[in-house]
Write a structure and sequence with these properties.
Elements: H1 7-12, H2 15-26, H3 30-42, H4 47-66, H5 72-95, E1 105-110, H6 118-129, E2 133-136, H7 143-151, E3 156-160, H8 167-179, E4 187-191, H9 197-203, E5 207-208, H10 212-221
Parallel strand pairs: 1-2, 1-3, 3-4, 4-5
Helix pairs in contact: 2-3, 2-4, 3-5, 4-5, 4-6, 6-10
Length: about 220
């Protein structure tokens, strides 16, 4: 019984590391982020959990930027720290997948009318590290650009929407795929702050991910 540790108890082991990673990203100093990542790795924290903690920090950075409490150089510095961390964590993320799994080409983007792309960028990076061929179109992506990438060979699409007013674009793209006779050949992922599993079910999406690591896990399961 002494060693009967539940999954929930295991997760609580890294609460300090999670906070330190989050705070380091919000502080936007690259050396501080790298130090927090290294300390978390030494503590045995999984790479996906490290990324989720940093993703939480990046989300707060985005909010502070929108409120005028942080400025673009700060956001770019935090992103640089995140990128440096991904280079360190990449091999661990890649090794967690099956080497025999056929990797798909994925087109990713934040839908048109929406310029928020932090979460989407994190998800794109995780998919790349997992061995997928990711075509990240950035933010404010027109519907036609998604369709063109799919016609060009991508078999999966990930659409992020961070505002309720842009969520409907996800549905519109799915309807275009149906009209083009492509829907059955494409795996559709949707995500973003206002997006829910219920919305994904309603519009006929294949995958909904609440976090970048959850989305990546579900994609790899396919």
């Amino acid at each position: 019984m002494l060693h009967n540790v539940t999954e929930r108890e295991k997760m609580t082991d890294f609460k300090n590391e999670e906070k330190n990673l989050h705070d380091a990203v919000v502080a936007f100093k690259v050396p501080g982020i790298q130090e927090a990542v290294e300390n978390a790795r030494k503590a045995g924290m999984p790479a996906t959990a490290i990324i989720d903690a940093m993703g939480s920090g990046m989300s707060e950075v985005g909010v502070l930027f929108e409120r005028g409490k942080l400025f673009l150089p700060h956001v770019l510095s935090a992103a640089a720290g995140m990128k440096a961390a991904m280079e360190v964590l990449g091999p661990e993320l890649a090794s967690s997948g099956s080497d025999s799994m056929k990797r798909a080409s994925v087109v990713m983007g934040t839908v048109e009318g929406d310029v928020h792309d932090i979460g989407k960028s994190i998800c794109s990076t995780m998919l790349q590290c997992a061995g997928f061929d990711v075509h990240d179109l950035g933010r404010d992506v027109p519907k036609g650009s998604f369709i063109n990438e799919l016609k060009g060979g991508c078999t999966m699409i990930g659409m992020s929407a961070l505002m309720t007013t842009t969520m409907t674009v996800q549905r519109d793209v799915i309807e275009i795929l149906k009209n083009e006779g492509m829907r059955d050949k494409i795996t559709v992922m949707v995500g973003g702050a206002p997006v829910t599993q219920a919305w994904a079910d309603k519009i006929g999406a294949d995958i909904y991910g609440e976090s970048a690591s959850e989305t990546t896990r579900k994609v790899k399961e396919l």
